[in-house]
Amino acid sequence: MNAVVPDAAAASTADRLKITEIFLSLQGEARDAGWPTVFVRLTGCPLRCVYCDTAYAFHGGQWWDIEAILAEVARHGVRHVCVTGGEPLAQKRCLSLLARLCDAGYVVSLETSGALDIGCVDPRVSRVLDIKTPGSGEVERNRWENLPLLTPHDQVKFVICSRADYEWAREVLHRHALQARCDVLFSPSKSELSPRDLADWIVADRLPVRFQMQLHKLLWNDEPGR
């Protein structure tokens, strides 16, 4: 259940973020899949991927003071926190929120499009970096300068829309030796590619990647706040 939004007038302008929702669910993707996790979804995104399933976070939202965000996260009583969007890094004060969450002892992950600089993100945060395939419609927005910044603490995700996307992602994987930097995840686009096809391609090519599906979609479909 989503929390009551605090009074925006009481928040300091310097310590506010625009938030679409904060909720407790299971992490459905990446290394921490299955863990009860508090999701802090920031409002706004400069990209428009064709398969986006959180377009409701592009606009609207409410201003939250960082102290209020921390209090709401603590109220849920779990160890894992995922800061997501939209594109969280489009709000500069996201960096302060990430550091404060780490200071509070949470296991923190950041879901980011890969279009913005990840270099200033607190190194305690696991950065889950999307690489946009041609099928996403946003391949030109990839910030390739991010790749040398990746560490074993981070993760890279490709959402695959077609066989052409798969072959493109396979080439990027090998050209940048991504598997030597961090975990690499391949996911099928829900509406465009059969999960079985993607799984078969990965096995046939013996790719050093993890196949994943969105656990939360399998459990709750597109129910908001889950």
UniProtKB/TrEMBL annotation:
Pathway: Purine metabolism; 7-cyano-7-deazaguanine biosynthesis. Its cofactor is Mg(2+); [4Fe-4S] cluster; S-adenosyl-L-methionine. Coiled coil: none annotated. Residues 32-226 form the Radical SAM core domain. One of its GO terms (molecular function) is lyase activity. It is an enzyme of class 4 (lyase). It comes from the Bacteria. S-adenosyl-L-methionine binds at residues 51-53, 86. Keywords: 4Fe-4S, Iron, Iron-sulfur, Lyase, Magnesium, Metal-binding, Queuosine biosynthesis, S-adenosyl-L-methionine. This is 7-carboxy-7-deazaguanine synthase.
